[in-house]
Write a structure and sequence with these properties.
Radius of gyration: 18 Å
Oligomer: single chain
Strand content: 15-25%
Mean pLDDT: 95
Distance between the termini: 32 Å
Number of domains: 2
Order of helices and strands: EEHEHEHEHEHHEHHEHEHEEHE
Helix content: 40-55%
CATH architecture of the largest domain: 3-Layer(aba) Sandwich
CATH topology of the largest domain: Rossmann fold
Bound molecules: D-glutamic acid
Length: about 260
Amino acid sequence: METLHIGVFDSGVGGLTVLKELNHLLPSASYTYFGDCARCPYGSKSASTVIRYSLENAQFLLTQGVQVLVVACNTASSVSLDRLEQTLSIPVIGTIKPTIEKIAQVTTKKRIGVIATRGTVRSQAFQREIAKRLPEAEVFATACPLFVPLVEERVTHPLIIRMIIKESLAPLKKKGIDTLVLGCTHYPILESYIREEMGPDIAIINPGKACAEELHALKRDLPTTTAQEHSEQYRFFVSDDPKRFKSTGEAFLGFALKRVLLCSL
Ligand code: DGL
């Protein structure tokens, strides 16, 4: 059987929310995932550092024979997509551009909120791409640096989560947005709380979903490989602490990760 071998990288475990969406639309593909746990978080690092990390992550995935690269990390997508596209000979899909099409489809008032890491907000990548596609749109981008630790530390107390969400989204609530982009891998995990805070009327966009839809649409034009080359459907590599990745990853994905291998770049 012919199958598509998809490489996915993220700064750590968060990109599994994107893998989940990919797997939903492309269940017969095989996946090699690299989580750069040793150098996480990317959201607080400079663009040049994130570009360097992204190139190294991509090179590693190329050595694993992937045929298409998904940059699951929004911070990496924001700053390194052009470099990756220029450098690699395989197709590269990030989270930003597919999200813009989704925004264009759902926005009614063209008042768009984007929540993301500091690095993503600072890069202006969402703001720039939205302006190209919807020049009349108003974009309100807000960094929510407490959301990633909230998810990674698996805080479950609703009171604490609601307090942090309320405080972080307060600047956006006054803006009358009709669409909100969850511009960070971890935020879809908090979606129900974000929805509760922002109200039922706004459209919430998950870039991971948009990215999976884009890849699904492209699938026909991509090369495939024979299934026996990859006996396992998923292979997970991390640059640090496979145990922690495995337990957090299982909570994110809702199924057991058979093996997580440690590798140094
Ligand atoms: N994966 C990152 C992103 O989507 C969040 C975690 C980090 O800061 O590395 O922007």
